[in-house]
Amino acid sequence: MNILELSEQEIVRRQSLQTLRDMGIDPYPAAEFPTNAFSTDIRSEFKDEDEPRQVMIAGRLMGRRVMGKASFAEIQDSKGRIQVYVSRDEICHGDNKDLYNVVFKKLMDIGDFIGVKGFVFRTQTGEISVHAQELTLLSKSLKPLPIVKYKDGVAYDKFDDPELRYRQRYVDLVVNDGVKDTFLKRATVLRTLRKVLDEAGYTEVETPTLQSIAGGASARPFITHFNALDQDMYMRIATELYLKRLIVGGFEGVYEIGKNFRNEGMDRNHNPEFTCMELYVQYKDYNWMMAFTEKLLETICIAVNGSPEREIDGKMVSFKAPYRRLPILDAIKEKTGFDCNGKTEEEIRAFCLEKGMEVDETFGKGKLIDELFGEFCEGTFIQPTFITDYPVEMSPLTKMHRSKPGLTERFELMVNGKELANAYSELNDPIDQENRFVDQMKLADKGDDEAMIIDKDFLRALQYGMPPTSGIGIGIDRLVMLMTGKTYIQEVLFFPQMKPEKKMPQSTINEWEEIGVSENWAYVMRKAGFNLISDIKGEKAQGLQQKIGEINKKYKLGYEKPSLDEVQNWIDKANPSAEANASTES
């Protein structure tokens, strides 16, 4: 990287880096720094009557107040922040005071990692602090952190732009309070989920992420190519069909927490790469699964928030069991007055069109009912609600309802207007399953690119016999959103998918060289604000020479100054029409 591509502060920090090395100080030492305390523990365990506690702490330098021979610094470790008192004569043990006067005061920057050895005390203002006796630079920061500053109650330099926060999560975690806590709560969700499933006797497993058939859900897959087999493969859209194979193989219950991938849109509730938990248990049905799920979510909410209630979008949502159970066709009738029960595909499509919905001929009966529910019902269920008994057209992997013809034993759990979980009494009749796969292929032939593909190996597994089984899939990202009260899925993903960064258009170094500007001077041109060659068209040779000369001097580059004729030649070549006129006149 050319130094002129850096900001003013970055250049100064690199100069400090070199100065440290010239002084014999390694800015990135390899030796262990054996910390024995965290900021939060130091404060919570401090007692004025105790003997001063000796500690070794480390963290980022987040603030510094220099007051002559003594200063105060603020260190941020993995748990919080604590004040450090730094005295020149305490950390500099001989006549050489450079560690304080030069290194601490001038060469250390906000964001540097430092280690402190000293003892704990209370300052005259009552703040529990660490009195430094030794100070060590552990890692030099070359980019300045966006530290929020306050003046007259107004905050400046806030790092609150969502795109920047999500793209540079590492900075977001350092400077914005509460962000790290969200992800610690996410860890609690996963830890509690595993604990409940493990204690129930179920086995955590891993299944393929690359699959030859994208099965187990209705979704558009990502496609890649397996060179060794010369075969197109799919990133999995669900783990369902492989987990059911394990039930066939004799496991009592299996679950997987892993990534799924769906090549669909991104918005506040969807990320194309997402985490899902799927659980399958033999000899159970969807009624058992509803009872198990509501107790599971109540347990998780208590573990994360200390209570089964959580405020979400200004509304108090209770995860305390039991939850309401409502058949999907009753839900649609309740919200629209239209009874889908017994209606043909054409009748349901006509009602959708009457309501101004965008539906077309590729939509089968199940898709139309799904669209109706999404349009008029889904967003209205704030408290946890089991929507049950879906039509068979919507549920190609679900067992037929034992008492309601045309419906299946399936539920979706709605919370705060969004789907959180999807569960079935699993279809284990291989002939019925094959017929439903065939119906799905007919939908694909009509243009439905989310229809399932026939998985012949899964059908073969079913033919060996699968016991009665209930299964569920829970979206972990949405679950964490609910448990932390976050509105956007990006807030609970460390690194959500983002559009490519916008880059300022720039002429390449080769393009600058084509008009006679050397590589060194091309970087100077950019530093002067001329990103494109066309930007210098309106410049006067003398003015341009002065601008780039000032940068050459400011950064002590030592480049040989170009003559006025050379600069004029650059301008002429940047403006071909003017150059052509000049040639004609001569």
UniProtKB/TrEMBL annotation:
A GO biological-process term = lysyl-tRNA aminoacylation
Record SUPFAM superfamilies: Class II aaRS and biotin synthetases, Nucleic acid-binding proteins
Annotated Mg(2+) 1 binding sites: E412, E419
Q: Which principal EC class is assigned to this enzyme?
A: ligase
What GO molecular function annotation could you give as one example from this UniProt entry?
tRNA binding
Q: Which cofactor does it need?
A: Mg(2+)
- The record's principal subcellular location, in a coarse class, is cytoplasm
NCBIfam families per record: lysS_bact, PRK00484.1
Subunit architecture: Homodimer.
Q: What is this protein called?
A: Lysine--tRNA ligase
